[in-house]
Amino acid sequence: MWMVLSFIIGALAVLFAVENNAPAKVTFLSWEFQQSLGVVLLIGFLAGFVAALIVYLPTHLRNRWRIRRHEKRIAEVEADLAAERGKRAQLEIERAESMRAQAGHSSAEH
Predict the structure, then answer these.
(1) Is-contact 61 45, C-beta < 8 A?
(2) Helix, coil or strand: residue 23
(3) Of 28, 41, 67, 93, whose CB has the highest number of CB atoms within 10 Å?
(4) Number of domains in the chain
(5) Cα–Cα distance between 105 and 51 in angstroms, integer?
(6) 30, 41, 51 from 44: Cα distances, Å
(7) The model's pTM
């Protein structure tokens, strides 16, 4: 799916650059070059995308680490809960056996 989407976006970018082939002069500080308008706009778009990715990436990674830590903790708590439920079930069985034994002793005494 990603390959198809990437191909479509790439094809649209090439089509955009070909259709906007008017020359554009770019000057930044002492750096200067001339290229077609479409290429200049695509380079600007890519530069903005990379800058946004650099800003977003640390937050994304930190959130993924938190999610993994929380998922691990949830698994531990669920395992503890299952163990406690097992203990409770065993205690209920022992209690029921004890109640039956007491009922047997009290009926034998009468």
Answers:
(1) no
(2) strand
(3) 41
(4) 1
(5) 81
(6) 18, 5, 11
(7) 0.53
